[in-house]
Amino acid sequence: MSRAPVVLTSGDPSGIGPELAVKARAVLGDSLPFVWLGDPRHLPAGTAFHEVTSPAAAADVPPGALPVLPHRFAAPALPGQPDPANASGVIEVIARAVDLVHSGAARALCTAPIHKKALKDGAGFAFPGHTEYLAHLAGVGRVVMMLACPGLRVVPTTIHIALSEVPTALTEALLEDTIRITHAALKADFGLAAPRLAVAGLNPHAGEGGAMGWEDERMIRPLVARLAAEGMAIRGPLPADTMFHAAARAGYDAAICAYHDQALIPIKTIDFAGGVNVTLGLPFVRTSPDHGTAYDIAGKGVADPSSLIAALRLAQDMATARGR
User: Where, in this chain's numbering, is substrate bound (predicted)?
Assistant: First the structure.
């Protein structure tokens, strides 16, 4: 088996990322090899860590210590107080981690949370977020965000836009692209030979035959029918209010949703602490915990590592499915 581990980026060193890395190592031990890429000065005081010169060397670090691939930042870090001087270091770590997975030195990428405004203020970061920067580094035109937990996978077709903009943004081309990227990723990254997809309607009751809006009948239903005719196991448009109870979830492998909250409310209700953010459509595996930097609790030792642990495990599983 390859010694290449998952590489975990430091994220914003003033957030909860560094302390969660330590907690994840304590839980996972040597059952899941990962290497933390960041500045050791940013780890919680008293952390047992071991610096390595290559990701592969992480496998030789005793379970009681965190394997660290050092990356020097400009300044120390104070919990809850982002320092503009460290913004460039955060960005450099992401780019270096991508190089590691591209080269095969790391088998998958897991990213700790960043704070977009802090990066913009400190380093002129020009991307809306992590995902767009990763797509840029990978040379990929479009990627898709999936949120996953053991009981549900959801994909929002439109993401961080006003609800009033969704009907215009939700075009047939965008929805088809989202469906095809998701379908391919379920095969390649999740090992599903024949993925089953459920497509949520845009309107209440999936439009109810046009009584509550025509987008479902005029755009979504014909698209789903066309893809089904190609052999894809796909259903829709389905009323979103009846798609997410346990019996309904058993009938599909991923739900394609029209907009952000339609996808994220059910998964955060089902598994608030354990959800994982997955980027589909990249040439490498990338996962991330489904939470932010949490400046308000950083350094207090109360941050829950469940989502990061789930993200590391899923990264490992996806990399295995890809055969890396």
Answer: 130-131, 268, 277, 286
